[in-house]
Amino acid sequence: MTAPLVEARDLRKVYPTDRGLLGRPRRRVRAVDGVSLVVRPRETLALVGESGSGKSTIGRLLLRLEEPGGGDVLFEGESLLALRGAALRRRRRRFQMVFQDPWGSLNPRLRVGAAVAEGLRIHGIVPRHAVGERVRELFRSVGLPEDAAGRFPHELSGGQRQRVGIARALASEPVFVVLDEAVAALDVSVRAGIVNLLLDLKEERGLAYLFIAHDLELVERVADRVAVLYLGRIVEEADAADLFREPLHPYTRGLLAAIPVPDPGRRQSRIALPGDPPDAASPPAGCAFHPRCPLAEARCRAEDQVLAEAGPGRRVACWKAVG
Known about the structure:
By secondary structure, this protein is of the alpha/beta class. Helices cover 31% and strands 21% of the residues. The strands form two sheets. An eight-stranded mixed beta sheet has the order 6-7-8-3-9-10-12-11, with helices on both faces. A four-stranded antiparallel beta sheet has the order 2-1-4-5, covered by helices on one side. α3 (112-123) packs across α4 and α4 crosses α5. It is globular and about 70 Å long. It starts with 5 loop residues before the first strand and ends with a helix.
């Protein structure tokens, strides 16, 4: 099996919420609670789950945009947490992020060509005299006219701004890109073009993606593997084809059952997911999903569920699924 490009080992992140006297935190939220996963070269791993499940936090931790409270992140076999200064900057060339909001991720006072050129200069990708030509090449590669480089973000459409964000991510010639809901803020009419662009770039440049999304129809189209998050933990992980064909965890089944069926005459069995996820600052005992699970029994309320092998390339945190 191909060695991992990126690997998270028992990754954890806790955020203080309410603070009391002297600023001491009274409540803590476990945004990421012991997550281990791998992304292999040239593959797309999708992270799915409801809002607040920890998807975006994991993406930021993998790129060390935030510091984890525990665990480790390995990139090409090397611990990112052990790197400092120039060594970390050299590594940062190899991984980038495309954010959800293309407007918020661009400096409104900076022409978009200059925003893309920043990465080229910081990492010394090309000689100074060649920066302009490389920016134009990057704009062409993402389907933007060369003269767009001289415009400000407000002069571009949402789809064009996201293409600028993709060009900026590609400027350092990465091998791993985190796509944090990268098409969620776009109009439906624009979304397909951006998705096709991302798929083409993956093949042309040999990229690996962490694809953070809540649109499961889109995930089914683009992902090689899928990890399902619930309350900061992975509850199921499998090849995309296997997961969509036969989901094992009741939470995954509920998510997939909620996908609209385009044929109005086709009946679809649904697993209802009542209520909302519990308070992450005071999760329930046992399996965190048991208050919403239609299959929960006494054991689910008493025993903490851990990921276990459920077949080749499959892991699931449900004792009923693994027998």
